[in-house]
Amino acid sequence: MKLTVLGSGAGLPSKERKTQSIVLDLIPEINAYFLIDAGEALQHQLLLTNIKPRKINHVFITHLHGDHIYGLPGFLSSRAFQGGNDRPLHLYGPKGIKEWLELTFHISGTSLNYPLFIHEIGDGMKLEVEGYTVQVRLLEHPVDSYLFVFEEPDKEGSLDAAKLKEIGIKPGPIYAEIKNSKTFVHENITYRTSDFLGPVTLGKKIAIHGDTRLIKDDEYKKLIENSDVVIHEATFLDYENEKAHEFGHSEIHEVMELFSTLNIDTTIFTHISNRYDETFIKGIKQTLPTNVWIAEDFFSFEVK
Ligand SMILES: [Zn+2]
Ligand SMILES: [Zn+2]
Known about the structure:
By secondary structure, the protein is α/β, with parallel strands linked by helices. It has 2 domains: 256 residues, Metallo-beta-lactamase, Chain A (4-Layer Sandwich), CATH 3.60.15.10; 36 residues, no CATH class. The strands form 3 sheets. Strands 6-5-4-3-2-1-16 form a 7-stranded mixed β-sheet. One zinc ion binds next to loops.
């Protein structure tokens, strides 16, 4: 599982940063990618990676501001010419996304050669997507903006061969039979399979925010606590909390303060304003703890 920020800018693009798009690489797990947001340069950024558009089969849109969606019609339309034939795509986004896309496709005479399923989301929804649970939470921004929390199921422990050998069962097809049943009998003794399994591996939890002012309620904290990775917006980098709040955005120090109480393994900040030059951003980076990152375009993070 890997996260790649294709566009790390906020609002307006700059020479250094395109507007927001993030890819959750699940190729080793399910041979597919999830895309979160579709900033204007999405297609061009994808061309500079090995990511195949036809393997992006689920797209999650946090909100309908242009810096998060203006790359969407182009991406969907090009996918039809990039081996996307008959490979369905599911799109999840706020109310209005369906009308906007259908009108855009109608006026521009665009037709797709694959099924596109558009699902409009709402606060508190729990989606089941290819074995992952995706919780949806409304944030605070001038338009409806959402947080997506992706949770991988826990993995059952593997069979403890040494323990099985101890009771005289040698490796062979019998191991698969044991694994697939709750109990098994050996030399007239009934055993519970669970006594012969290693520890459960906890599934990973990734939280990806749309634009928002800092949220502090208990329900929100519970939703993101113990995450392996949280991606949060960073429109304000320099202790301008009041201004951030007024514009429905966040300032990174107040976010870090909250996150330090929530057992979050890694924080990635993105949605960086072009008000800051790269030297200033570099200076801020040097002050951050080692588990906190400020993304640039093509920043990649392997979730271990
Ligand atoms: Zn934005
Ligand atoms: Zn916005």
